[in-house]
Design goal:
This protein is mainly alpha-helical and about 80 residues long. It has a domain of about 35 residues. Helices cover about 25% and strands about 0% of the residues. It is built from four helices and no strands. It comes from Triticum urartu.
């Protein structure tokens, strides 16, 4: 809990640890620091793992997520 409990609070009352309104941290330093864990975010962000699903999304996006259709045949004469 942190701070020692005063003797007068031990008898007949529930001692509750209070959280500050800023950041819900008991120390009061909740949201004071911004971007303090940039390296941790970089390690865990999207793209650091296998991305079995997300790896194919850009290619499927180009075709508007079309599935189950067959590609139109290419004209050989136009290619030469």
């Amino acid at each position: 809990m942190g701070a020692p409990v005063p003797a007068k609070l031990l008898h007949g009352q529930v001692w509750q640890a209070h959280a500050h309104a800023v950041g819900n941290q008991p120390s009061g330093d909740g949201m004071r620091y911004d971007n303090w864990s940039v390296k941790a975010i970089r390690r865990k962000t999207t793209g650091t793992g296998r991305m079995r699903y997300m790896r194919h999304v850009p290619r499927r996006f180009k075709s508007n997520f079309r599935e189950g259709t067959e590609a139109a045949p290419r004209n050989r004469a136009a290619a030469n």
